Amino acid sequence: MNTSGDPAQTEGCRGTMSAEEDARWLRWVTQQFKTIAGEDGEISLQEFKAALHVKESFFAERFFALFDSDRSGTITLQELQEALTLLIHGSPMDKLKFLFQVYDIDVCAWQGASAGTEWGAGAGPHWASSPLGTGSGSIDPDELRTVLQSCLRESAISLPDEKLDQLTLALFESADADGNGAITFEELRDELQRFPGVMENLTISAAHWLTAPAPRPRPRRPRQLTRAYWHNHRSQLFCLAAYAGLHVLLFALAASAHRDLGASVMVAKGCGQCLNFDCSFIAMLMLRRCLTWLRATWLAQVLPLDQNIQFHQLMGYVVVGLSLVHTVAHTVNFVLQAQAEASPFQFWELLLTTRPGIGWVHGSASPTGVALLLLLLLMFICSSSCVRRSGHFEVFYWTHLSYLLVWLLLIFHGPNFWKWLLVPGILFFLEKAIGLAVSRMAAVCIMEVNLLPSKVTHLLIKRPPFFHYRPGDYLYLNIPTIARYEWHPFTISSAPEQKDTIWLHIRSQGQWTNRLYESFKATDPLGRGSKRLSRSVTMRKSQRSSKGSEILLEKHKFCNIKCYIDGPYGTPTRRIFASEHAVLIGAGIGITPFASILQSIMYRHQKRKHTCPSCQHSWIEGVQDNMKLHKVDFIWINRDQRSFEWFVSLLTKLEMDQAEEAQYGHFLELHMYMTSALGKNDMKAIGLQMALDLLANKEKKDSITGLQTRTQPGRPDWSKVFQKVAAEKKGKVQVFFCGSPALAKVLKGHCEKFGFRFFQENF
């Protein structure tokens, strides 16, 4: 392959683009260069570092030295265009030469050699002019270690020096084919060719930085009512249609009954009848005990129980909208009445007083209506996300409790509202009374606190004797020492098979959770009481006796703090055990519902296994545990390395539990992704990812997490992930997700494309 750096080759490389694209790219590069370079027309090293957005200056300095072909200490527009043209549109060999010289640290440009050093003849970048550049022409172990250390910093990975040495030796020994103690250009090329896709995808951040931005595609609107869309949303669409149809019917019946009183009265009465239904039924959607019971019945397959909060919010918007229309219609009617010659009342009397006698309780319809509208607007404003998520949750909580006053005013305001409220109100107050009695019947205690990385608080709570829950369920927690009246929902992260304790993993994100973390960080419950060591021994014994649930704890704080729990309550993840092929996706702390589920799945799976005592042959036999699962894929996406420390010991145990099942194919497959880590297609991470692969194959464990499963850099390619899942043909696929709403939308779109059912837990 011709690798000379003459202009002809440069034109040939850029010739893959059309003339229009080429001209557009050059114009954009020139404009970007002028913006960065300023008046002097050249880019200095500091300007280059700032523009490249790299975490580690090592790579910026190496790139700059190789771009600066005349060693003037600055980069001109011509030098930049020639270098980037080869890096973006050049052959894999051109890019490989650049990579080699980045790794060959003792080149003269890096060491600051004398100005008499030759850079190679001809136009174009000097790495393209000479196969080995002007350095030593080889990479020794110390140079490779320096590069890998910078790669680790770029990817925000922290490893001990011993592990860095192991990575360096793993890559060096694999690449040094002739064993002469140095890696040549040819050896590096051969090593890269062993990793599929690396040569084709080789690029650097500088190329992306000065590549003309592609026109932003218009967002594709999902094709509504396609077969896949209907498959995933049929219950929601049916309920929405029924809800809209009921409102049309109620409005029409009420309006027609008052058609002799004029249009404004017809509109007011129609809206009022719809409000009778909405204001009584809206609370039914938040009856958690009733919803949990319904999840265990066939109605869970018909009703969209997982979207109860979204429907509650929708009804809240409808209530506010109908109330405004209802008020405006009555106001118009009052204006018309006040203008009539025979009317004894003025407008303000009709609107604000009881003198006209409007209403069934001492003429209180008008003033109660005004009070109701003000209360509803207050609740509406204080329930907005900007209030709830800005550290003012208590504002939302206390203003939402005014629903009791709203119901009372509605009973005085409308003559028929009490009839609509009778059944929902009885159910509502029964549930509240039962919840209050159960939660306050006997306080439980927090037996141990474990402070984990990324400000995660791990609580071990003594399990009440009659507290029965299912994997993925959640509870409400109240700790009077943190906040006497605040209850907050948290997913139970321990398996139901764990009899002694309940686990909660709480991430510090708001005022209450931050106070919880800081209170245990500041105090030392470990030193309280004379029976500290006895209690510690007892706790450890109880943990060892719990099947499938031991975790290596750090920063222990044994304590005896009173708390109250309310629950358990069901979630969409209850459907997992009725699935055939379940794909569990957790982002960050979104793993907590799956921690309980994974433990329970493996516990049930182990119960299915039988071993012959004579020949040690093992087989799997079905048992009556209502679990239809044939395969489970667990995907965990984290931003940084420390985030994996939350549940690494649990995942390690899960891997050990099924280590002997390789002959049958793994029932549970783990897939780990670290978004801050750069992938093999980035110049700043190629060597590191190759070394991590080599060392993982050698040690049979990942260097980042210690698991057997290799941690993949970057974000998952969801198309490839779901294609692989579909190709396995393990049965009907259902995807369960807990994480950010933005990622949920992406996953939902892919599930519709592949025909998978998608379930999301509110996060």
From TrEMBL:
Keywords: Calcium, FAD, Flavoprotein, Membrane, Metal-binding, NADP, Oxidoreductase, Transmembrane, Transmembrane helix
Highest taxon, organism lineage: Eukaryota
InterPro entries associated with the record: EF-hand-dom_pair, EF_Hand_1_Ca_BS, EF_hand_dom, FAD-bd_8, FAD-bd_FR_type, Fe3_Rdtase_TM_dom, Fe_red_NAD-bd_6, FNR_nucleotide-bd
Keyword hit for Calcium: yes
SMART domains registered for this protein in UniProt: EFh
Domain EF-hand: 55-90, 163-198
Primary site of residence: membrane
Subcellular localization(s) per the UniProt record: Membrane
Topological type in the membrane: Multi-pass membrane protein
GO molecular function terms noted in the UniProt entry: calcium ion binding; proton channel activity; superoxide-generating NADPH oxidase activity
Signal peptide annotation: none
GO biological process: defense response; endothelial cell proliferation; superoxide anion generation
Transmembrane segments: 237-257, 263-287, 314-338, 358-383, 395-413, 582-603
Designated name of the protein: NADPH oxidase 5
